[in-house]
Amino acid sequence: MKRVNFRVFKTFALIIAIALGAVACSKDSVAEIPGATTIECKGGDNPTLSFNAGDSWQLSSNAKWCTFVTSAGNMQEMAGNAGLHTVTLNISDEGNGNSWSTATITMKMNGQSAVIATVKRHPKELYMKLSDIAENPLNPQVFSIGYVDYAPTYIEANFRYAATEIPEWIEVKQRFTDDDGNITDEVMGSITGIPGERSWVMMRIVNDGYRERYPITADSGHVIKFSDEQGTVEYEFPIVFAGMGSDDLTFIGPSEINYGWEVSLSGKEFRQYNEDSKSFTKFGGSLQFDITSLNDEFDILYIEQKVDRGISSYNIIGTTAYDKTDESKSWMHFDKETMTLTIDEGTSTRYGLVMALPRGAYNRIRAKIEENIFDVDGASGIDLPIISDDYQKYVIIELTQHDFAEKGTYEGMYIYHSLTTLEIPASTYTDAAVMAEYGVEEAYTCPFVNSVAGKKPGIVIDPRTENWTTSMSEEGMATAEVYHMGEKLKISEDEYYLGENKDENMALYLWGPKAGWKGENVYILFNVDGQTKKLLVVTPPAK
Fold first, then answer.
1. Residues 6+ positions from 273 with CB-CB distance below 8 Å
2. Cα distance from N-terminal residue to C-terminal residue, the chain
3. Residue 360: which of 246, 217, 497 has the closest Cα?
4. What is the mean pLDDT of residues 459-481?
5. What angle is formed at CA 511 by the lines to CA 508 and CA 512, rounded to 5 degrees?
6. What pLDDT is attached to residue 29?
7. How many angstroms separate the Cα of 338 from the Cα of each of 189, 333, 341, 451?
């Protein structure tokens, strides 16, 4: 009789029991349907769909144009067992129009059903079109780019797209609207869009002082290219640019400031005072400029400022213009070829400015230049001509030509119009008899200001005399004597008084003789500690 080994039998029975338990456990667990995905394709494509099924499965498509490639042919349904699978789809052109088509692929497994893929078929004829902000189609289909302002364009397509080529000299903004209706404009490195939704893009040229000068036409070869997500469809649109505006002009000068320039009487040295360093920056006998205008077309005006008795006026003394070039009366010269400014040699102080007008602005005003570029400033109580705000931006330099010889603190006299604060130069007085009569060795003369309706203008005089100061005046050590027709005038608001000028220096305010000038001079003595230091002879007003 064969002996049975119960120990082995028990062990084998235990293994069988565990195995059966494991099987029972897996039967209780239900395999989940794979997650959903999206497939974009075109008619004629054979995209694939991969998934991992935990049990037997069945797939079905709800569209006739989307079928499964099987050994039995293209089918609307197919089935398989658990495991990793990749199925191939057949996408036909059946029913394909000018809009997107959508199909869903549904999986059934273990009594469950769910969509595991959404198939989006491109329209049979893809389109991409441009329109203006009024939604009118652009003809021709081109992107216009702006100069300073952005030029807007609407883009619409029936496929998902992105720009694949944008010139680096174009700055792009794209407008976005969030769910709350808030609008933001963002600077973009590309342009993107989704099917059926218009994208508002804005473009302008990146200025470099050169490229903005010249227009770009549709046949210049500059384009913006777009592609679909698969890179199989490409669109391109020409770029057009009208150039900077005919009224626009920019310039770069020797410094960032175009006013406060000084020129020596010889014309061989320019300089500009630096407030930070409290010193002059010196240049040679010419100044270099870089002027940017449409098609390099601009015209030069030379304008001289005259100051007579503290009242300013302007005169156009020359032009370098395409229609009437004339520099014969100008002491300022601008070479448009080399972009350099030079100044003729002078003998006395003179003031000037140079204006560069873009051709469009010049043509608009050339018949009546003075009437257009000058305005009136009445802030001082006197109507004074000034360059109007619209044309101030075209002034490339304001300058004064004068003697660079340094004067001492107490040399000469500083005199200005009480209303306009413009300087009235004092010249040396040489009548020896008068100087002897008043006992002075240093004397000057200047004209008195003309009358102004409804105002009483005068002159403000700083004799630039040592110790003739406010503190010395308060101690009775700094005084003045004013004579007219042999009579000594009295300190009063009608004739003269002592105070401080706009630079907070001790000054004498002269309003003139109360009885009138009667064709006679006024003589002013400036005294310090009982000694007459300087004499000023003021001649009567011209009117």
1. 260, 262, 279, 280, 281
2. 159
3. 246
4. 97
5. 110
6. 65
7. 38, 12, 9, 47
